[in-house]
Amino acid sequence: MKSKWWLIGLLVCLAVASLAPLASSSPDGLERVAEDKGFIDLGQETPFQIIADYVFPGIENEALATILAGLIGTLILFSVAYSVA
């Protein structure tokens, strides 16, 4: 029964990740506040990014690249969470 809920959760997350290209192109709330208050340039990039800016390298179609980045990120996080739990 427990693994059934993990599978349902994974499928829901994968479905949501596949809808990423339909999300708003506006910046998220924190980024918007940083722009409005004028400190967006003080932000620092993380030293290591697996899939930078949610774009999968080597794929020209931006929507498909975003979907793949979301799916791979979801699978990575679920793998880590499942191995910890």
Automatic annotation (TrEMBL):
Cell compartments where the protein resides: Cell membrane
Stored InterPro entries: PDGLE_dom
Residue ranges of the TM segments: 63-84
A Pfam family assignment: PDGLE
Keywords, comma-separated and alphabetical: Cell membrane, Membrane, Transmembrane, Transmembrane helix
Residues in PDGLE domain copies: 4-84
CC per GO annotation: plasma membrane
Record's protein name: PDGLE domain-containing protein
Organism: marine sediment metagenome
